[in-house]
Design goal:
- This protein has one domain.
- The two termini are about 20 Å apart.
- The radius of gyration is 18 Å and the shape is elongated.
- Strands 1-2 form a two-stranded antiparallel sheet.
- It is mainly alpha-helical.
- It is built from three helices and two strands, in the order E-E-H-H-H.
- Helix 1 packs across helix 3.
- A hairpin with a 5-residue loop joins strand 1 and strand 2.
- The relative contact order is 0.12.
Length: about 100
């Protein structure tokens, strides 16, 4: 059974990341003494996590749609061998499969 996250996620200009039901899923708040730099870093982390999680399904779907195009005898595939390997590795990593 696969459990999917309840997205889209948001952080509402705060450190707590919440799901579509407004339930907290992550906290980017540091326990160290606060400073303006740390606050900006915490918000940047929250924004990055939200963007990555919200884009995950679409990016994985796009990679998986392109991947079958890499299994033919085109001379271009030799030119882009490194990029094709990166594409396959990204799919494997995203699906948490052993490489």
């Amino acid at each position: 059974m696969e459990t999917k996250h309840k997205g889209p996620w948001h952080h509402g200009n705060g450190y707590i990341i919440r799901d579509a039901n407004n339930d907290p899923v992550a906290n980017c708040h540091y326990t160290e003494p606060q400073s303006l730099i740390l606050q900006e870093h915490q918000l940047a982390n929250a924004e990055f996590i939200v963007r990555a999680c919200n884009a995950y399904d679409d990016m994985l779907e796009a990679l998986k749609a392109i991947e079958p195009m890499t299994w033919n005898d085109s001379p271009l595939l030799k030119i882009y061998a490194k990029e094709i390997e990166q594409l396959r590795a990204a799919i494997t990593k995203a699906e948490d499969k052993k490489e």
